[in-house]
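Appendix B. Raw example, untouched.
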Amino acid sequence: MKLPDDYQIDKGILELESKIGVPPKFFLRLNDADDWTFVIKLHALFEAACTHLLLHHLQEPELASVISRLELSNKATGKIAFLTKLGLIGKDNRRYISTLSELRNSLVHDVRNHEFSLPDLVAGLTQQALQNMAVAYSPYEAFVREHFAGGEALGLELGQNLIEQSEPGAVTRRFKADPKYHMWIGAHAVLISLVDQYDYSDYLRWSRSDKGSDFPDELV
């Protein structure tokens, strides 16, 4: 799906791109890449974003060369494992990145995969595998299902249409129709969440310090 020419990327993502040293609108322009490049570059973006967030939280610049060499999605020793233990990434965002890592790892070691096609991948999946992948690449919808789909007052405020569009069947149909756009939208949600974790990281470090009970001005 082609985004409108006047589409405005989220300010937080633009700030994150600046922090990690990629060109402005790097993430936005992934929509124009071929499928192989899209997967490889999107994974690299998450690698850089998770590295930067970890270093921000640890406040130890000397660890940069060590952290950067960690695998992204290794469940025991990867960047995602560290972020999970630190409370800086949730299960749905973790699932998105882990699923992306599996796909990237299947492509990156053989340049002959440059003709990889997401529609072809989707066409070869069983219905259950298709749904599993569609759900993994839609973390926001997973959040809606978990917290609002039971008909609670907050759920009603979201709107019934949004709740229905977050159901696995609807998510699967959208993924099948346009897998790259579906993955891009899911990545958008994960990146925004990572951006939000910088403030939460600051709060966590402040709460564990001996600075007293006054909330620091920069966290207000």
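End of appendix B.
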